Structure formats: structure tokens, C-alpha cells
Amino acid sequence: GQQQRVALARSLAKRPQLLLLDEPLGALDKKLREETQIELVNIIEEVGVTCVMVTHDQEEAMTMASRIAIMSEGHVLQVGAPSDIYETPATRFVADFIGNVNLMDGTLAEDEADHCVIDCEDLKHYVGHGITGTRGMAVSVAVRPEKIHLSRHAPADEDHNRGFNRAKGVVKNLSYFGSYTVYHLELPSGRMLKVSQNNTQRHREHELTWGSEAWAHWSRMSQVVLTQ
Question: What Å distances lie between residue 42 and 5, 25, 28, 52, CA to CA?
């Protein structure tokens, strides 16, 4: 960490207009890397230099960048703020590359100005906007694990009662990370759905565990429809 700080100081001593960094924190352990990321961002903002950084660590890019460019096979697929890249990916590659995501292939069943319906193997998505597509066209739906809720009982609001944006499955695996838990819910087709739940309480009644049956459900604005 000290070596990286010295190297950065030497680079900034000549007051460059552009600073190029190639995985500058790759050799540091996780905790030190997180501390140095914040320190590095603060220094760069204070000095006022433009910085272009190459990294394969998606979390590092999200933490440090004001704009991100996603590249694949020499082509830039999307450029935008971290929140834009994460929440509104332009392609399947971008959605899958940044963060965890559930990608489901399906066909466009309805497409109106205020909504569209996507038929997938295990469920139907009701999305709160149209996509200007043609019925029957192949599309993909991306849903982030943290946008999905888990419950032991079937959800009861309007969309869910109509059979949209919900799926029943069995908890096949779970990973406890302290502040949150990731559940792998097996759907009837055998497909796995990843769900991330914040652990806001120290002890929860009727907590889901291996083999538990559960309902996954999400809102009509949680999905992103991808056509490429």
C-alpha cells in the first residue's frame, strides 16, 4: 500500500493533465484495497487531474469511477455513470459483466406504451414500460438479485395475483455474508434464481434454509428488457 502511494505521488508531482493507471491496486489485499480506493479518489479529485484506469475488478470500477466504459473484444459496448451501467445495461454482456444478475430468455407477448409482457420458461414478466418491439421476438430479461424478495407465502398484490413477476421454488443453496445472504432458488424447470436479502435483524422467525419452499417476487420496475 505504501509503495502504491509513493508511486502515485511521483506521478502527480509533475502535475500531469492525464493520469493513466493500469490495475494500480491489484496486488493489495481486499481491506487495504478498499481503503486505498477511497484515498486515491480523494487525491485525484483534490489535484484535479483526469484519470483513466484499467481494472478487471467490477466493484473497484463502480467505487472509483465517475464514468465507466465496458469493453469486449476490442469494442466499447456502453459508456456511462456507474449507476447507469448497473441499473440500465445495454446488452446481455454488460448486464452479466457488472454485478450479479439473473438473465432469463423469453419471447415478447405484449408490448404497449405503458407496459410489456415477456413469457419465460418458469414465469411471466410484467414490465412497467414498453420496448417498441414485435410480438414473438426473442428478448432477455435481467433482474438483479437484490431487487427480488423472498417469502414463504405467495405475494398478494395486483401483478402477482395475475401471475406476473413471481415464481415458486426450493432453496437449494445459501451463502451467508454477514450483512446479507444470497439464496439459490431452484425453479420447476431446474433453473436457479439468485436472490440477495439484507440481514436487517439479528434473529428472524421462520428463516429460510436448505430445502425450504419459497416464493420469489419483484415489482414491475425491477427488470431490464434486453434485445441484444
Answer: 13, 15, 18, 15
